[in-house]
C-alpha cells in the first residue's frame, strides 16, 4: 500500500523541507515509506504518484489545517485523472483536538500567559467550509485556555491579523498571535510583522502533528484492509 502526504506546494525551500521532514517522521512511526505530493507550484502531483503505482492501493492524507478547495476539489480531481481504482483520501488535518494541543504547546513555548489576549492566525480562505473549520479551532482553543481567541487571517479573509492585534491592544493587555500555519514562509513573516507582543512558531514538525498524520494513515489502512 502506498502512503502519500499531500501538501499545497511552495517555492520556499523551508516549506518543502518541512513536508519532507514530516513525512520522514511519520515513516519512522509507521515503519513504512511515506511519499510526498503537491497540488500546486511544484511536483510530483498526486496524479503522477498514483499513476506510477496503479497496482497498489493508496492512502492520501491532505496536509491542510482545514477543509477547502484543495481538499474537496483538487485532490479528488488528481485521483480521477490518475485512473487509480483503489485510493482512500482521509480528512484534512484540521480541525482536530490534536492540533489544539499543539497550539497550546506553542503558546506556552512562546511565553504566553493566561491574562494575554490571543489571536489565532491562519493563512486565509474564501471557502465557507474552511472558515467554519478555522472558527471551530478558535472555539476549541478558547475553551482550552479559558479565554476568547480571535480568529484572523494573513491573506484572504477578515479581519487581517494586524487589524485584530490593533483592536485587542485597546484592552490594555499583551497580545499573542498563535500561528495556525504548518511552516515558515511569507505568511509567518506577516504574522511577525503584525505588531503583537509574541508570535508563536508554526505547528511545523511538532511531534503532535506527526502523530496526527500517522494516525490518519493507520486508520485508513485498517479500514481498507477490513473492506478488502
TrEMBL record:
Keywords, ordered alphabetically: Lyase, Metal-binding
Single GO term (MF): lyase activity
Alphabetical list of InterPro entries matching this protein: CbiX-like (IPR002762), Sirohydro_Cobaltochel/CbiX (IPR050963)
Short name of any one Pfam family annotated for the protein: CbiX
Coiled-coil intervals: none
SUPFAM superfamilies in the record: Chelatase
Protein name: Sirohydrochlorin cobaltochelatase
Organism: Mycolicibacterium chubuense (strain NBB4) (Mycobacterium chubuense)
Lineage: Bacteria, Bacillati, Actinomycetota, Actinomycetes, Mycobacteriales
